From TrEMBL:
It comes from Acidiphilium iwatense. Residues 113-218 form the Metalloprotease TldD/E central domain. InterPro entries: Metalloprtase-TldD/E_C, Metalloprtase-TldD/E_cen_dom, Metalloprtase-TldD/E_N, PmbA, TldD/PmbA_N, TldD/PmbA_sf. Belongs to the peptidase U62 family. Residues 22-86 form the Metalloprotease TldD/E N-terminal domain. This is TldD/PmbA family protein. Residues 93-115 are annotated as: Disordered. Residues 226-441 form the Metalloprotease TldD/E C-terminal domain. It comes from the Bacteria. It holds the Pfam family PmbA_TldD_1st.
Amino acid sequence: MSGLDRLGELLAAAKRAGADQADALLASGTSLSVGRRMGKVEEIERAETSTIGLRVFVGRQSAIVSAGAVDPAGFDRLAEQAVAMARVVPEDKFADIPDAPPPEDSAPLDIDDPAEPSAETLMARAAAAEEAALGFAGITNSEGAGASWSRSHIALATSRGFAGAYTRSGHGVSVSPIAGEGVAMQRDYEFSSAVHGADLGDPAELGRAAAERAVSRLNPGRPATAKLPVVYHPRVAASLLGHFTGAINGAAIARGTSFLKDSMGKPVFAPGILVIDDPRRVRGLRSRAFDGEGQAVSRRALIEDGVLTTWLLDSRSAAQLGLTTTGHASRGTSNPPSPAPSNLYLASGALSAKALIADIKLGLYVIELIGQGVNGITGDYSRGAAGFMIRDGRIAEPVAEITVAGNLREMFLHLTPANDLEFRRGTDAPTVRVEGMTMAGA
Protein backbone atom coordinates (compact mmCIF):
# COMPACT_ATOMS: atom_id res chain seq x y z
CA MET A 1 0.00 0.00 0.00
CA SER A 2 1.43 3.40 -1.00
CA GLY A 3 1.83 6.29 1.38
CA LEU A 4 -1.00 8.22 -0.26
CA ASP A 5 -3.29 5.17 0.00
CA ARG A 6 -2.58 5.01 3.72
CA LEU A 7 -3.32 8.70 4.11
CA GLY A 8 -6.58 8.25 2.24
CA GLU A 9 -7.60 5.57 4.72
CA LEU A 10 -6.65 7.80 7.64
CA LEU A 11 -8.75 10.67 6.29
CA ALA A 12 -11.68 8.29 5.89
CA ALA A 13 -11.23 7.22 9.51
CA ALA A 14 -11.26 10.87 10.59
CA LYS A 15 -14.55 11.43 8.78
CA ARG A 16 -16.08 8.36 10.45
CA ALA A 17 -14.93 9.69 13.83
CA GLY A 18 -16.80 12.96 13.29
CA ALA A 19 -14.20 15.32 11.82
CA ASP A 20 -15.53 18.02 9.50
CA GLN A 21 -12.12 18.44 7.86
CA ALA A 22 -8.76 16.72 8.15
CA ASP A 23 -5.30 16.50 6.69
CA ALA A 24 -2.67 13.82 7.14
CA LEU A 25 1.10 13.76 6.70
CA LEU A 26 3.36 10.74 6.36
CA ALA A 27 7.12 11.17 6.78
CA SER A 28 9.40 8.18 6.36
CA GLY A 29 13.08 7.88 5.77
CA THR A 30 16.34 6.00 5.95
CA SER A 31 19.67 7.41 7.05
CA LEU A 32 23.25 6.21 7.36
CA SER A 33 26.02 8.09 9.14
CA VAL A 34 29.61 7.37 10.09
CA GLY A 35 32.11 9.13 12.30
CA ARG A 36 35.81 8.81 12.98
CA ARG A 37 38.34 10.59 15.13
CA MET A 38 42.13 10.47 14.92
CA GLY A 39 41.96 7.68 12.38
CA LYS A 40 39.62 5.43 14.38
CA VAL A 41 36.01 4.62 13.61
CA GLU A 42 33.78 5.94 16.39
CA GLU A 43 30.31 5.54 14.94
CA ILE A 44 28.33 3.76 12.27
CA GLU A 45 24.60 4.28 12.55
CA ARG A 46 21.71 3.34 10.30
CA ALA A 47 18.14 4.35 11.08
CA GLU A 48 14.77 3.81 9.46
CA THR A 49 11.87 5.93 10.67
CA SER A 50 8.22 6.36 9.78
CA THR A 51 5.70 8.67 11.44
CA ILE A 52 2.19 9.70 10.55
CA GLY A 53 0.31 12.76 11.71
CA LEU A 54 -3.39 13.60 11.59
CA ARG A 55 -4.92 17.05 12.04
CA VAL A 56 -8.71 17.19 12.43
CA PHE A 57 -11.21 20.02 12.59
CA VAL A 58 -14.55 19.92 14.35
CA GLY A 59 -16.00 23.24 13.34
CA ARG A 60 -13.24 25.73 14.24
CA GLN A 61 -11.72 23.47 16.88
CA SER A 62 -8.71 21.44 15.85
CA ALA A 63 -6.20 18.95 17.24
CA ILE A 64 -3.21 16.96 16.03
CA VAL A 65 -2.14 13.43 16.88
CA SER A 66 0.84 11.50 15.58
CA ALA A 67 2.06 7.92 15.72
CA GLY A 68 5.15 5.95 14.85
CA ALA A 69 3.06 3.08 13.53
CA VAL A 70 1.37 3.47 10.16
CA ASP A 71 -0.73 0.30 10.33
CA PRO A 72 -4.26 1.08 9.05
CA ALA A 73 -5.62 -1.25 11.76
CA GLY A 74 -4.96 1.54 14.26
CA PHE A 75 -6.34 4.43 12.20
CA ASP A 76 -9.84 4.44 13.68
CA ARG A 77 -8.48 4.72 17.21
CA LEU A 78 -6.03 7.47 16.17
CA ALA A 79 -8.82 9.45 14.52
CA GLU A 80 -11.14 9.04 17.50
CA GLN A 81 -8.42 10.39 19.81
CA ALA A 82 -7.88 13.39 17.57
CA VAL A 83 -11.57 14.24 17.34
CA ALA A 84 -12.01 13.87 21.10
CA MET A 85 -9.13 16.29 21.67
CA ALA A 86 -10.48 18.79 19.16
CA ARG A 87 -13.85 18.95 20.90
CA VAL A 88 -12.34 20.24 24.15
CA VAL A 89 -10.00 22.96 22.84
CA PRO A 90 -10.92 26.59 22.13
CA GLU A 91 -12.01 27.64 18.65
CA ASP A 92 -9.50 29.23 16.30
CA LYS A 93 -11.30 31.36 13.73
CA PHE A 94 -8.22 31.64 11.53
CA ALA A 95 -7.13 28.00 11.27
CA ASP A 96 -8.44 26.09 8.28
CA ILE A 97 -7.46 23.61 5.60
CA PRO A 98 -7.10 25.40 2.25
CA ASP A 99 -8.56 24.15 -1.00
CA ALA A 100 -6.33 22.14 -3.28
CA PRO A 101 -4.47 24.50 -5.64
CA PRO A 102 -4.65 24.35 -9.44
CA PRO A 103 -1.97 22.28 -11.22
CA GLU A 104 1.49 23.72 -10.54
CA ASP A 105 4.83 23.83 -12.31
CA SER A 106 5.73 20.23 -13.11
CA ALA A 107 9.39 20.84 -13.98
CA PRO A 108 11.52 18.18 -12.25
CA LEU A 109 13.35 19.29 -9.12
CA ASP A 110 15.93 16.47 -9.26
CA ILE A 111 16.02 16.16 -5.46
CA ASP A 112 16.39 12.38 -5.22
CA ASP A 113 19.78 10.80 -5.86
CA PRO A 114 19.07 7.13 -6.64
CA ALA A 115 22.55 6.02 -5.57
CA GLU A 116 22.75 4.87 -1.94
CA PRO A 117 26.36 4.93 -0.71
CA SER A 118 27.78 2.14 1.41
CA ALA A 119 29.18 2.65 4.88
CA GLU A 120 32.62 2.12 3.35
CA THR A 121 32.05 4.96 0.89
CA LEU A 122 30.97 7.30 3.67
CA MET A 123 33.93 6.29 5.80
CA ALA A 124 36.27 7.02 2.90
CA ARG A 125 34.81 10.53 2.63
CA ALA A 126 35.27 11.16 6.36
CA ALA A 127 38.78 9.73 6.28
CA ALA A 128 39.83 11.91 3.37
CA ALA A 129 38.62 15.03 5.20
CA GLU A 130 40.27 14.22 8.52
CA GLU A 131 43.55 12.98 7.06
CA ALA A 132 43.91 16.14 4.97
CA ALA A 133 43.29 18.25 8.08
CA LEU A 134 45.72 16.27 10.26
CA GLY A 135 48.39 16.57 7.59
CA PHE A 136 48.32 20.36 7.75
CA ALA A 137 51.22 21.94 9.68
CA GLY A 138 50.09 23.14 13.11
CA ILE A 139 47.15 20.77 13.51
CA THR A 140 47.56 18.79 16.72
CA ASN A 141 44.24 17.06 17.27
CA SER A 142 40.81 16.49 15.86
CA GLU A 143 37.23 16.63 17.06
CA GLY A 144 36.52 14.17 14.28
CA ALA A 145 35.07 13.91 10.83
CA GLY A 146 31.81 12.45 9.65
CA ALA A 147 29.83 11.63 6.55
CA SER A 148 26.15 10.93 6.10
CA TRP A 149 23.43 9.98 3.64
CA SER A 150 19.67 10.09 3.93
CA ARG A 151 16.53 9.61 1.87
CA SER A 152 13.15 10.83 3.07
CA HIS A 153 9.66 10.45 1.62
CA ILE A 154 6.94 13.00 2.29
CA ALA A 155 3.27 12.40 1.51
CA LEU A 156 0.39 14.78 2.28
CA ALA A 157 -3.35 14.44 1.74
CA THR A 158 -6.23 16.71 2.75
CA SER A 159 -9.99 16.44 2.83
CA ARG A 160 -10.10 19.48 0.53
CA GLY A 161 -8.81 17.48 -2.43
CA PHE A 162 -5.02 17.64 -2.28
CA ALA A 163 -2.80 14.55 -2.47
CA GLY A 164 0.90 14.66 -3.25
CA ALA A 165 4.24 13.08 -2.43
CA TYR A 166 7.93 13.55 -3.11
CA THR A 167 11.26 11.99 -2.14
CA ARG A 168 14.42 13.85 -1.17
CA SER A 169 17.98 12.60 -0.65
CA GLY A 170 20.89 14.21 1.14
CA HIS A 171 24.64 13.70 1.41
CA GLY A 172 27.00 15.39 3.85
CA VAL A 173 30.61 15.44 5.01
CA SER A 174 32.17 17.48 7.82
CA VAL A 175 35.47 17.86 9.66
CA SER A 176 36.65 19.77 12.74
CA PRO A 177 40.43 19.97 13.36
CA ILE A 178 42.23 21.49 16.37
CA ALA A 179 45.40 23.56 16.31
CA GLY A 180 47.78 24.35 19.15
CA GLU A 181 48.17 22.92 22.63
CA GLY A 182 46.58 23.28 26.07
CA VAL A 183 44.57 26.43 26.76
CA ALA A 184 45.89 27.96 23.53
CA MET A 185 44.06 25.47 21.30
CA GLN A 186 41.79 26.70 18.52
CA ARG A 187 39.32 24.70 16.44
CA ASP A 188 37.53 25.31 13.22
CA TYR A 189 35.28 23.31 10.92
CA GLU A 190 34.19 22.84 7.35
CA PHE A 191 31.37 20.89 5.76
CA SER A 192 29.53 20.24 2.54
CA SER A 193 25.90 19.24 2.02
CA ALA A 194 24.23 18.26 -1.24
CA VAL A 195 21.18 16.48 -2.58
CA HIS A 196 23.36 14.41 -4.93
CA GLY A 197 26.61 12.81 -3.85
CA ALA A 198 28.27 14.04 -7.05
CA ASP A 199 27.74 17.65 -5.91
CA LEU A 200 29.56 17.27 -2.58
CA GLY A 201 32.68 19.32 -2.05
CA ASP A 202 35.99 17.46 -2.17
CA PRO A 203 36.54 16.06 1.37
CA ALA A 204 40.30 16.64 1.28
CA GLU A 205 39.82 20.28 0.29
CA LEU A 206 37.34 20.69 3.14
CA GLY A 207 39.86 19.25 5.57
CA ARG A 208 42.64 21.54 4.41
CA ALA A 209 40.40 24.62 4.52
CA ALA A 210 39.28 23.87 8.08
CA ALA A 211 42.86 23.19 9.16
CA GLU A 212 44.18 26.40 7.65
CA ARG A 213 41.53 28.44 9.44
CA ALA A 214 42.14 26.68 12.76
CA VAL A 215 45.87 27.44 12.58
CA SER A 216 45.25 31.04 11.55
CA ARG A 217 43.11 31.54 14.69
CA LEU A 218 45.94 30.71 17.14
CA ASN A 219 46.86 33.27 19.78
CA PRO A 220 43.89 35.61 19.32
CA GLY A 221 43.84 39.03 20.90
CA ARG A 222 40.98 41.05 22.33
CA PRO A 223 40.88 44.46 20.64
CA ALA A 224 39.66 47.72 22.11
CA THR A 225 36.02 48.67 21.74
CA ALA A 226 35.36 50.57 18.52
CA LYS A 227 32.73 51.52 15.98
CA LEU A 228 33.75 50.14 12.62
CA PRO A 229 32.73 48.21 9.48
CA VAL A 230 32.10 44.51 10.10
CA VAL A 231 32.59 41.99 7.30
CA TYR A 232 30.82 38.65 7.64
CA HIS A 233 32.24 35.46 6.15
CA PRO A 234 29.55 33.67 4.06
CA ARG A 235 29.02 30.96 6.65
CA VAL A 236 27.93 33.56 9.22
CA ALA A 237 26.46 36.10 6.80
CA ALA A 238 23.60 33.67 6.19
CA SER A 239 22.49 34.17 9.80
CA LEU A 240 21.46 37.73 8.92
CA LEU A 241 18.95 36.30 6.46
CA GLY A 242 17.57 34.13 9.26
CA HIS A 243 16.92 37.24 11.35
CA PHE A 244 15.30 38.90 8.34
CA THR A 245 12.91 36.05 7.58
CA GLY A 246 12.02 35.81 11.25
CA ALA A 247 10.98 39.46 11.06
CA ILE A 248 8.76 38.92 7.98
CA ASN A 249 7.21 35.69 9.26
CA GLY A 250 3.44 36.08 8.95
CA ALA A 251 2.83 34.81 12.47
CA ALA A 252 5.07 37.55 13.94
CA ILE A 253 3.48 40.18 11.72
CA ALA A 254 -0.02 39.10 12.80
CA ARG A 255 1.02 39.35 16.46
CA GLY A 256 2.68 42.70 15.89
CA THR A 257 5.94 41.39 17.35
CA SER A 258 8.32 42.26 14.51
CA PHE A 259 10.49 45.33 14.02
CA LEU A 260 9.52 45.16 10.31
CA LYS A 261 5.75 45.03 10.90
CA ASP A 262 5.18 48.42 9.19
CA SER A 263 7.74 47.97 6.41
CA MET A 264 5.77 46.39 3.55
CA GLY A 265 6.58 48.19 0.30
CA LYS A 266 9.33 50.22 1.95
CA PRO A 267 13.13 50.10 1.66
CA VAL A 268 14.51 47.59 4.16
CA PHE A 269 17.88 46.99 2.50
CA ALA A 270 20.02 49.30 0.39
CA PRO A 271 19.04 49.90 -3.25
CA GLY A 272 20.07 47.03 -5.52
CA ILE A 273 19.79 44.34 -2.85
CA LEU A 274 17.88 41.21 -3.90
CA VAL A 275 16.77 38.43 -1.52
CA ILE A 276 15.20 35.35 -3.10
CA ASP A 277 13.32 32.35 -1.76
CA ASP A 278 13.21 29.58 -4.35
CA PRO A 279 11.55 26.29 -3.35
CA ARG A 280 11.79 25.02 -6.92
CA ARG A 281 15.54 25.29 -7.43
CA VAL A 282 16.87 22.18 -9.14
CA ARG A 283 18.84 20.07 -6.63
CA GLY A 284 18.14 22.61 -3.91
CA LEU A 285 18.67 21.42 -0.34
CA ARG A 286 15.20 22.66 0.65
CA SER A 287 13.39 22.29 -2.65
CA ARG A 288 9.88 20.87 -2.45
CA ALA A 289 7.00 20.05 -4.73
CA PHE A 290 4.40 21.69 -2.46
CA ASP A 291 4.25 23.32 0.94
CA GLY A 292 3.06 21.90 4.26
CA GLU A 293 -0.57 22.58 3.38
CA GLY A 294 -0.43 21.22 -0.14
CA GLN A 295 -0.23 24.67 -1.68
CA ALA A 296 1.72 25.57 -4.81
CA VAL A 297 5.23 26.92 -4.31
CA SER A 298 7.19 29.30 -6.51
CA ARG A 299 10.28 31.48 -6.63
CA ARG A 300 9.73 34.83 -4.93
CA ALA A 301 11.79 37.96 -4.49
CA LEU A 302 11.32 38.82 -0.82
CA ILE A 303 13.46 41.92 -1.27
CA GLU A 304 13.66 43.58 -4.66
CA ASP A 305 15.93 46.59 -5.18
CA GLY A 306 16.06 46.87 -1.39
CA VAL A 307 12.26 47.02 -0.99
CA LEU A 308 10.22 44.49 1.03
CA THR A 309 7.68 42.84 -1.29
CA THR A 310 5.97 40.12 0.77
CA TRP A 311 5.51 38.40 4.09
CA LEU A 312 6.11 34.66 4.54
CA LEU A 313 2.58 33.29 4.96
CA ASP A 314 0.77 30.05 5.61
CA SER A 315 -3.03 29.96 5.41
CA ARG A 316 -3.57 30.84 9.09
CA SER A 317 -1.31 33.89 9.19
CA ALA A 318 -2.67 34.95 5.80
CA ALA A 319 -6.22 34.82 7.17
CA GLN A 320 -5.18 36.91 10.17
CA LEU A 321 -3.78 39.57 7.85
CA GLY A 322 -6.57 39.43 5.26
CA LEU A 323 -4.17 38.07 2.63
CA THR A 324 -3.61 34.80 0.78
CA THR A 325 -0.98 32.19 1.55
CA THR A 326 2.40 32.55 -0.16
CA GLY A 327 3.02 28.79 -0.08
CA HIS A 328 5.45 28.97 2.83
CA ALA A 329 3.71 26.56 5.22
CA SER A 330 6.09 24.13 6.90
CA ARG A 331 5.15 21.35 9.30
CA GLY A 332 5.99 18.05 10.90
CA THR A 333 3.74 15.16 11.78
CA SER A 334 3.10 16.42 15.32
CA ASN A 335 2.73 20.17 14.84
CA PRO A 336 0.49 22.50 12.83
CA PRO A 337 1.76 24.41 9.79
CA SER A 338 3.74 27.61 10.30
CA PRO A 339 5.54 29.90 7.84
CA ALA A 340 9.16 29.16 6.93
CA PRO A 341 11.47 29.85 3.97
CA SER A 342 12.91 27.22 1.63
CA ASN A 343 16.05 27.81 -0.48
CA LEU A 344 16.79 31.32 0.74
CA TYR A 345 19.62 33.49 -0.51
CA LEU A 346 21.01 37.00 -0.75
CA ALA A 347 22.04 37.65 -4.34
CA SER A 348 25.65 38.48 -5.13
CA GLY A 349 26.83 42.04 -5.44
CA ALA A 350 29.33 43.57 -7.86
CA LEU A 351 32.54 43.55 -5.79
CA SER A 352 34.84 40.69 -4.90
CA ALA A 353 35.32 39.90 -1.21
CA LYS A 354 38.83 41.31 -1.47
CA ALA A 355 37.57 44.54 -3.01
CA LEU A 356 34.87 44.78 -0.36
CA ILE A 357 37.49 45.23 2.37
CA ALA A 358 40.12 47.07 0.36
CA ASP A 359 39.18 50.54 1.63
CA ILE A 360 38.68 49.57 5.30
CA LYS A 361 41.37 51.19 7.45
CA LEU A 362 40.14 49.47 10.62
CA GLY A 363 37.46 46.80 10.62
CA LEU A 364 36.47 43.34 11.78
CA TYR A 365 36.18 40.14 9.75
CA VAL A 366 33.81 37.73 11.52
CA ILE A 367 34.07 33.97 10.93
CA GLU A 368 32.17 32.70 13.98
CA LEU A 369 29.14 33.90 15.93
CA ILE A 370 28.11 32.82 19.42
CA GLY A 371 24.76 33.15 21.19
CA GLN A 372 21.38 34.41 20.02
CA GLY A 373 21.23 37.99 21.29
CA VAL A 374 18.63 39.32 18.86
CA ASN A 375 15.42 41.09 19.84
CA GLY A 376 12.81 40.43 17.16
CA ILE A 377 10.57 43.25 18.38
CA THR A 378 13.14 46.06 18.37
CA GLY A 379 15.74 44.64 15.99
CA ASP A 380 18.50 45.11 18.55
CA TYR A 381 21.43 42.82 17.71
CA SER A 382 24.28 41.68 19.97
CA ARG A 383 26.26 38.48 19.44
CA GLY A 384 29.54 37.04 20.58
CA ALA A 385 32.06 36.78 17.76
CA ALA A 386 35.51 35.66 16.71
CA GLY A 387 37.52 36.37 13.61
CA PHE A 388 40.25 38.73 12.44
CA MET A 389 40.93 42.43 12.46
CA ILE A 390 41.05 44.24 9.15
CA ARG A 391 43.87 46.76 8.91
CA ASP A 392 44.56 48.94 5.89
CA GLY A 393 42.41 46.76 3.65
CA ARG A 394 43.93 43.42 4.66
CA ILE A 395 43.01 40.57 6.99
CA ALA A 396 45.25 40.91 10.04
CA GLU A 397 45.58 39.30 13.49
CA PRO A 398 43.01 36.89 14.99
CA VAL A 399 40.63 38.13 17.69
CA ALA A 400 38.20 36.42 20.05
CA GLU A 401 35.98 37.08 23.08
CA ILE A 402 34.38 40.09 21.46
CA THR A 403 30.81 41.19 20.81
CA VAL A 404 29.36 42.79 17.68
CA ALA A 405 26.28 44.94 18.17
CA GLY A 406 23.90 47.12 16.22
CA ASN A 407 20.27 47.26 15.15
CA LEU A 408 19.09 45.04 12.33
CA ARG A 409 17.05 47.80 10.72
CA GLU A 410 20.19 49.92 10.33
CA MET A 411 22.39 46.92 9.55
CA PHE A 412 20.18 45.86 6.63
CA LEU A 413 20.14 49.39 5.20
CA HIS A 414 23.95 49.59 5.36
CA LEU A 415 24.77 46.11 4.06
CA THR A 416 26.82 45.46 0.91
CA PRO A 417 27.17 41.93 -0.56
CA ALA A 418 30.24 40.62 -2.37
CA ASN A 419 30.09 38.49 -5.52
CA ASP A 420 31.08 35.15 -3.94
CA LEU A 421 27.66 33.53 -3.34
CA GLU A 422 27.68 29.72 -3.28
CA PHE A 423 24.67 27.48 -2.65
CA ARG A 424 25.83 25.29 0.23
CA ARG A 425 23.47 25.48 3.19
CA GLY A 426 19.83 26.04 2.26
CA THR A 427 20.14 29.62 3.54
CA ASP A 428 23.04 31.23 1.72
CA ALA A 429 24.73 34.60 1.45
CA PRO A 430 27.96 35.91 -0.01
CA THR A 431 30.50 37.79 2.07
CA VAL A 432 28.75 40.93 3.34
CA ARG A 433 29.98 44.22 4.76
CA VAL A 434 27.92 46.12 7.32
CA GLU A 435 28.83 49.70 8.15
CA GLY A 436 28.77 51.40 11.53
CA MET A 437 28.61 48.47 13.94
CA THR A 438 29.98 48.42 17.47
CA MET A 439 32.72 45.94 18.37
CA ALA A 440 32.93 45.53 22.15
CA GLY A 441 36.29 44.18 23.24
CA ALA A 442 38.80 44.98 25.94
